[in-house]
Design goal:
The chain is of the alpha+beta class and 379 residues long. The protein contains ten helices and 13 strands. It has helices at residues 2-50, 59-63, 93-101, 126-131, 259-265, 270-273, 307-311, 314-322, 339-345, 358-372, and strands at 80-81, 113-115, 119-120, 144-145, 148-151, 157-159, 164-172, 179-188, 191-200, 213-214, 219-222, 235-241, 253-254. The strands form three sheets. An eight-stranded mixed β-sheet has the order 1-2-5-12-9-8-7-10, with no helix packed on it. The protein has a three-stranded antiparallel β-sheet with strand order 3-4-13, with no helix packed on it. A hairpin with a 6-residue loop joins strand 7 (164-172) and strand 8. The radius of gyration is 29 Å and the shape is elongated.
Length: 379
């Protein structure tokens, strides 16, 4: 009996100590998990900041001060700058023949030609729009070109302008589309930038894999022929993006209603290629009217708000105009806020549908929802 009672007391004592230990461990675990949750949220914020689209007025500062390797080898002074504002010209058969064999027989190769960025090209993309109506949420009559075209002979090498990583590659088979295309991810001053190389040959994507490292000046592809490049005269479509592509594709042309937004998301490739022509866009057909100028005081699309716009609300203006002479009182100090709660409270109104990276935005929302629900142990 004594032994039984002793064993029972010992068992109860052990259970009590175990429960106490679990409670203490649970408290420590919850604190640690909250710290881990905060760390993960901050990491997501850092990634979102690295992919933040910035206004076009800030693009030059982002790309300045870096060394970039030529994307293709050509003498700018000997290039022909094309004007596609009247649509695609009728190329003679001899032109295609010279482009097809110019790499093997340089003496018959025609001069390198340049297609401009930010150029309105009516009718030129009708065959593309007939089969590919929308690209990455860009809709409408897409005829404003937001890349640079470099026309040269089939099999001309295309090179990476700096060290990067293969992000996506594939084949867009529609008539007027990119054909074979490679997208490379770069990092410039802590920001991610994607470069699209379109209208390539089939062999350009052979032995490629996502995550493959490429060096500045490394050949990553070759210009494709008409049968494999979307049905175009041999040329490279080169485009930059501050917006993470969903696939091996970017909207190479956009509609009028998306024009201002596109100029923010897709910088001028001349920022890494160097100046190819002296003029600035938007290039329009002769006689056409430009976009409507905003009224005085109206903020232009893609323009940063002024200090007055950022710091003055309607309520503040009304208060200033009312001439209220009531004695001003020192506001009470706000209580210290937990770092995790602060990170999530600032995020509670954030609309993920407007985010440049929907998935990362949703990841952060999920973690914050778990924290607000008091589910720090279950997230």
């Amino acid at each position: 009996v004594i032994r039984r009672n002793a064993v029972g007391c010992l068992f109860l004592l052990c259970c009590s100590m175990a429960v106490s230990g679990l409670n203490a461990q649970g408290g420590r675990s919850k604190t640690e998990r909250r710290q881990q949750l905060l760390s993960e949220i901050q990491q997501i914020e850092k990634q979102l900041d690295a992919e933040q689209v910035i206004p076009k007025q800030q693009h030059a500062a982002l790309f300045s001060g870096e060394e970039y390797h030529p994307v293709m080898d050509f003498d700018v002074k000997k290039c022909i700058v094309r004007d596609f504002t009247k649509g695609e010209p009728k190329y003679p058969f001899l032109y295609f023949t010279r482009r097809a064999f110019g790499n093997s027989f340089p003496l018959i190769a025609p001069p390198v030609d340049i297609g401009r960025y930010n150029e309105k090209r009516p009718v030129m993309y009708e065959r593309l729009l007939a089969s590919v109506k929308n690209v990455s949420h860009y809709k409408g009559v897409r005829d404003i070109h937001i890349g640079i075209d470099v026309g040269d002979s089939v099999n001309t090498p295309v090179r990476s302008f700096m060290d990067g990583t293969v992000y996506k590659f594939g084949y867009n088979p529609a008539s007027g589309d990119y054909g074979h295309v490679i997208v490379v991810e770069y990092e410039i001053k802590g920001r991610l930038v994607w470069g699209l190389y379109g209208h390539l040959s089939a062999r350009s994507v052979q032995f490629k894999y996502v995550g493959q490292k490429v060096k500045a000046g490394e050949t990553i592809g070759y210009l494709g022929g008409v049968h494999e490049n979307g049905g175009w005269p041999p040329h490279l479509h080169f485009q930059l993006s501050l917006l993470r592509p969903e696939t091996h594709d970017m909207p190479g042309v956009v509609a009028e209603q998306d024009h201002a937004q596109a100029l923010d998301q897709f910088p001028d490739p001349q920022l890494v290629m160097g100046k190819l022509y002296p003029e600035e866009g938007l290039f329009r057909p002769a006689g056409s009217t430009g976009a409507q100028k905003p009224e005085t005081g109206q903020q232009q699309s893609g323009e940063l708000p002024s200090q007055e716009q950022r710091g003055t609300s309607a309520g503040t203006v009304e208060s200033l105009q009312s001439g209220n002479d009531e004695e001003w009182e020192e506001p009470e100090e706000e209580p210290e806020v937990d770092a995790l709660e602060q990170a999530c409270s600032e995020f509670s109104f954030y609309d993920c549908t407007a985010s440049h990276d929907y998935q990362k935005c949703q990841d952060k929302r999920t973690k914050c929802d778990a924290e607000s629900a008091g589910d720090a142990d279950g997230w």
